[in-house]
Amino acid sequence: LMNTCCITSGCYHRYANLLIFIMLLTLTILTIWLFKHRRFRFLHETGLAMIYGLLVGVILRFGVHVPQNMSNVVLSCAVNASPATLLVNISGRYFEYTLKGEVSRGKGHQVQDDEMLRKVTFDPEVFFNILLPPIIFHAGYSLKRRHFFRNIGSILTYAFMGTVISCFVIGLTMYCFVSFMKVVGQLGGDFYFTDCLFFGAIVSATDPVTVLAIFNELKVDVDLYALLFGESVLNDAVAIVLSSSIVAYQPAGDNSHSFEAMAMLKSFGVFLGVFSGSFALGVATGVMTFTKLRDFPLLETALFFLMSWSTFLLAEACGFTGVVAVLFCGITQAHYTYNNLSPESQDRTKQLFELLNFLAENFIFSYMGLTLFSFQSHVFNPLFIVGAFVAVFLGRAANIYPLSFLLNLGRKNKIGSNFQHVMMFAGLRGAMTFALSIRDTATYARQMMFSTTLLIVFFTVWICGGGCESYAWPFRIWYNFDHNYLKPLLTHSGPPLTATLPACCGLLARCLTSPQAYEVWAYSILLKGTELTLGEHELVIRGTRLVLPMDDPVEPPTTVTLPPPPSPPHSDPHRHRL
Amino acid sequence: LMNTCCITSGCYHRYANLLIFIMLLTLTILTIWLFKHRRFRFLHETGLAMIYGLLVGVILRFGVHVPQNMSNVVLSCAVNASPATLLVNISGRYFEYTLKGEVSRGKGHQVQDDEMLRKVTFDPEVFFNILLPPIIFHAGYSLKRRHFFRNIGSILTYAFMGTVISCFVIGLTMYCFVSFMKVVGQLGGDFYFTDCLFFGAIVSATDPVTVLAIFNELKVDVDLYALLFGESVLNDAVAIVLSSSIVAYQPAGDNSHSFEAMAMLKSFGVFLGVFSGSFALGVATGVMTFTKLRDFPLLETALFFLMSWSTFLLAEACGFTGVVAVLFCGITQAHYTYNNLSPESQDRTKQLFELLNFLAENFIFSYMGLTLFSFQSHVFNPLFIVGAFVAVFLGRAANIYPLSFLLNLGRKNKIGSNFQHVMMFAGLRGAMTFALSIRDTATYARQMMFSTTLLIVFFTVWICGGGCESYAWPFRIWYNFDHNYLKPLLTHSGPPLTATLPACCGLLARCLTSPQAYEVWAYSILLKGTELTLGEHELVIRGTRLVLPMDDPVEPPTTVTLPPPPSPPHSDPHRHRL
């Protein structure tokens, strides 16, 4: 009686489901720590989460066999509608059922298979309503003022015009490929021009997460950095509204997928209406959240959290896009509300959204890895995949290079061709692209899009992301070699060679090291406490990836009054040994 | 296509639902702030949340009329089982439905009514799986070491023996009342002895939340405080396991609700098994979470959070009680893991769980207020309600007084009779009682229990809680009178009467105030900066209600070096005016 839910629906599986993901996240966290600890940075943490997800997907797919329970029953009923709530009268007792969704045609019998795989499948709406909002809010909240607003024109150009250009270029390229596939006979179902445009919209959203992580390493100009980050944050919003406008252009019951001027205008109207509505709502609630609760950080933080969340819900209830509203709410709150908060609440809100963002992000990426094997309607079409990669490449190029050229005509701080290449390849696809493509996988076209999108995300995160990460690697190797061997040999600074060379070279090392080198080194050990603290501080900032590091003035290191280096400390062990 | 979910299930209502609760929480937060700001403390914040919930419940019940949408369809099908997943074949298309639960017999047609009220109704499992865990974990996490473990014997006695005694006393008393009601003809359905015991178990859980809040005001002995708080935390765990053991004693299909020795033994076995299993699991994961991630607070906090959550899930998956496991996990983590965390992570985890606890707690209490009007199967039986209040009183008395007497035989620090009375009346019923009673409201007996429990919670939180809160009120009035009028009149300390008396009494005041009083007062104004800081510090601690304030050594106030009071400051405006 108490556990009716458990008895009828199999609690074990429900919890197994969540436990698998918690295990994945825990593994990811531990590995990230290991990587950071050893300063091994070939791969970004989201790439790591994906790999673990992949592994678990393989295990679930091929390793685990769950005996089939016969709990699924197919009813054939003479009902005309598909109601949200169904009351089923089973031998005199009423049971209430809620609609989960339509099962794709002809797959009725397949639903019973692979129970375990289905259990690790989340409702796509979970991504939109639970996981994306904190990620997008955090991106907006960490978008710092000065450099963002100084470059607002360029950012908006890339985000709006660039995304629209990219969407249409990709759509047209895909249309060519799809037409070719139809001729060759490689297409297994319908694929209309609107589907191509829709695909263009969903893969045009670049990911702010990896941009933030990678550009902490490469010390680029702060303005250019703001440009890239601002673009990647805003184009998520553009892509989401663009894709829903395209869906609005393609009426559900209508089979004429041809181009129509009126429908196009309607779509444009939807785009403008939804975007401006979401924008206005987000900014309004962001501005409204000025608080006078400075004395009570808990209340203040709670209120801040609730207001941000209600922005999302309010926007969805009004028919706008919650994610977009939350983005602008975050930007506005970072701009106005943040400064009204008490210092403790500033820390608290930052840390809270940072944690939520971290968990949601890693969850999405490990789920991405998992779906490659657990999703059961994959349509991998080699031609389509090749076409998609070409199209994404072309789309990004058509966004960056022409717009940069035009923008450079008006900018004082020109966008160099080097940086244009970086922008071209740093356009990783991430959480938003995935969420948009998994939202609807009912038709053949959508399934093919989903499978292809998955590959695009994998490729960009691993290859482009990994490439950018390891870009910094050769420099570090050189630095270490220089610091440990060349400097001690050629100057008095750095650790003495007796410490850095292996023990067998002891004699050689001793000959090559000057007495002053020991003194300087011993002195540097004295300083080590200070150094370590600073080092940790830097690490923390990198670990949290919270703010644009060039933008946010880091507290100046506390000036420690120390004796001047020339006078050697008295208790120098090396000296006495000599 | 994009918004299939919204089109079919009415997004507006889904979001309206959450928006109502966010609005409620926001209102509660603002009012709490107002109360704290004005130092008005007649009512505890949970009591406030309840009142707002009540108001919204009334509005929804009587004020809002939502036109009936005909989305509910009753199907009569020849199926024997009630499967967890249902595939419905509607004119060739398959729709997937998930089981929500059984609708009570004969209420089939009523389900369609009051759509709006049903929309604000949450699945009872939400309380157990989402809202209770953070509350209970937080209680365990804020249970500080020293005083808790010093009194562990007494705490366990109250929590285990006391709760079992209380459960049986309440059960027996209720059985007498119910038998009487049956004779009088006031009983509208079955009510067995096991139902009485179940009722005893669910109303025996006292609430740690209000205890914490109230006893910050009354400066009782720290050991006694630890006693009361420890008991209220642990008896939640005992009550939850006890109630599920009683359900296990009462087999679903069996109609013989008489007393059986074998079934009793089985129940006892279930109790021991579930309790020790949950305990072992909680402690094990708590101990395991030692971290070496000190350099990365974000990773550390995330890991900490995930481990706590996985404890809950793991326990549920193993058939133990997640809430109990989480409690012991929290206690263990406060005892061991907390000290391994970096200082920043200590703050972060504290603040995170504090926020989650705050939100969950206020959500539950406002939902409680709401259900008084929105729940549609209330059974208010005056006789049963009177009986329940008498039984709860007797049960608490049979717990506290005899056990205190026995414990005092062995204790050095005796539990005074005054404090016994406080324990007697501070046994408020809160979130756990509510969650246990709303979990199953299918039968007449359970519905009557639910309605009565609601009233008991309301009564104890408002009357007992409010009583304890305002216990400190007369003292404060006296203090103010004393400080503002008596002290200035009789001594040289305090503000001069010219400042405290109304303007019309200016002459009188001037006559009664000595010149020294001005000097002392002016000096105290100089000190005011320091005082204010300390005052705020105290408020923050009270506002967050995070730790036992006597237990946790508050930072000593920074000693400010000030000139000694006798030498009057030179720039005294009052003096010059004189």
UniProtKB/TrEMBL annotation, chains A, B:
Subcellular location: Cell membrane; Recycling endosome membrane
Keyword list, A-Z: Antiport, Cell membrane, Endosome, Ion transport, Membrane, Sodium, Sodium transport, Transmembrane, Transmembrane helix, Transport
Its membrane topology: Multi-pass membrane protein
A GO cellular component entry from the record: recycling endosome membrane
Recorded GO MF terms: potassium:proton antiporter activity; sodium:proton antiporter activity
A Pfam match: Na_H_Exchanger
The keyword Hydrolase appears for this protein: no
UniProt record similarity statement: Belongs to the monovalent cation:proton antiporter 1 (CPA1) transporter (TC 2.A.36) family.
Protein name: Sodium/hydrogen exchanger
Source organism per UniProt: Myripristis murdjan (pinecone soldierfish)
High-level lineage: Eukaryota, Metazoa, Chordata, Craniata, Vertebrata
Gene behind this protein: LOC115371128
